[in-house]
Specification:
46% of the residues lie in helices and 15% in strands. By secondary structure, the chain is of the alpha/beta class. The strands form three sheets. The protein has a five-stranded parallel sheet with strand order 6-5-7-9-8, sandwiched between helices. A four-stranded parallel sheet has the order 2-1-3-4, sandwiched between helices. Strand 1, helix 2 and strand 2 form a beta-alpha-beta unit. The longest helix has 17 residues. It is globular and about 65 Å long. The protein starts with a helix and ends with a helix. Bound molecules: 1,3-dihydroxyacetonephosphate (13P) and iron/sulfur cluster (SF4). This is Quinolinate synthase. One of its GO terms (cellular component) is cytosol.
Length: 338
């Protein structure tokens, strides 16, 4: 039996749902029951009738499903860690709040928004402070809500998304660690200094190159790109929004897309006018860790009940107090993005 057929057989026997983010390898995405951007996957996987979720993506994505649907078992063929999510933990979160306090901003005057690309423990800190989670597809809505509170927004961990949102709303912003006390006090939006190493690869030089070569080309980027790149883009959106936008264009329209390679490569396969907005291959190493063989292995281990090793390696387990407060921040996001 082929690897694909063995996986299908295990999924059927276990009544499990195979979930894959758009950045996964083609071989994994082709087999998935459910694919999408991070918001769609969190929502749809947690609401699915399946009690076992096999999540192919990065750790914070599997965690979000577990937090939203604690009754489900969530296993990941590779518990790969998004490098941006790794840039902040609860200690760094506390230290950031201390820095804001030292600048004269009281805790009760801070509204924290954490990008979904963060660990459950950071989401829990944000939930405890009355803040909320956002993703690239609902960030504007969440930001609008935060503005109504008249508090200072502390946006984490992605400085680019935070700065892009501030710019869109004509708000003063700064980056913690780079800004002076005065600048912090003066800013409506204070961003943590995290970033996505993959989306940093796209530059305004790349945009200039494509605009010079192809007269009417459209530049399409993800909001994790640097503000200078986003400012020069014709369309900015989440992974799903990018796919939808390109799908609805005239097939002859030239586009250069600034997001992860696997997604852009799929878009490219149907069109000779679709380009990767980079001279290098912008591949997310952690998203690419999961192979079909890993999916099969995790299903075999689960079936054979290799419990101790398996639980520590592949199953998402979240301490109950962390899960409780992380759920508050995630539920608030789902409510606000309806
Ligand atoms: P989406 O929310 O657009 O799926 O993005 C997730 C991500 O990690 C982008 O780098
Ligand atoms: Fe994280 Fe960037 Fe990979 Fe997205 S592309 S999962 S933000 S490292």
């Amino acid at each position: 039996m082929s690897v694909q057929d063995q996986i299908k057989q295990h999924l059927k026997n276990l009544d499990a749902l195979l979930v894959a983010h758009y950045y996964q390898r083609d071989e994994v995405l082709e087999l998935a029951d459910l694919s999408g951007d991070s918001l769609e996957l969190a929502k749809k996987a947690s609401l699915s009738p399946h009690s076992l979720i096999v999540f192919c993506g990065v750790a914070f994505m599997g965690q979000s499903v577990k937090v939203l649907a604690p009754q489900k078992r969530v296993i990941m063929p590779k518990v790969a860690c998004c490098s941006m999510a790794k840039m902040i933990d609860d200690e760094y979160f506390d230290r950031s709040i201390d820095t804001l306090n030292q600048a004269g901003i009281k805790k009760e005057d801070i509204f924290p928004i954490t990008y979904i690309n963060s660990n459950a423990s950071v989401k829990a800190k944000v939930g405890k402070m009355g803040g909320v989670v956002c993703t690239s597809s609902n960030a504007s809505k969440i930001f609008d809500y935060a503005l109504q509170t008249n508090k200072k927004i502390f946006f984490l961990p992605d400085r680019c998304l935070g700065l892009n949102l501030a710019r869109k709303n004509n708000l003063k912003s700064c980056v913690l660690g780079q800004a002076s006390k005065e600048e912090i006090v003066d800013s409506a939006v204070i961003c943590y200094d995290g970033f996505c190493s993959v989306h940093q690869l796209f530059t305004t030089k790349d945009i200039a190159f494509f605009r010079q070569r192809y007269k009417d080309i459209l530049i399409i980027t993800h909001p994790e790109c640097d503000p200078s790149v986003v400012a020069q883009s014709d369309f900015v959106g989440s992974t799903s929004q990018i796919i939808e936008f390109v799908k609805n264009l005239d097939p002859n329209q030239a586009v250069a897309v600034g997001t992860e390679f696997n997604l852009v490569n799929r878009l490219r396969s149907g069109s000779k006018n679709t380009f990767v907005l980079s001279s290098t291959i912008p591949q997310c190493p952690t998203m690419n860790e999961t192979t079909l063989q890993d999916v099969l292995l995790v299903l075999e281990s689960f079936t054979q009940n290799k419990s101790d090793l398996f639980k520590s390696m592949n199953e998402i387990i979240i301490p109950s107090d962390v899960a409780k407060y992380a759920k508050i921040a995630l539920d608030r996001m789902l409510e606000l993005s309806k």
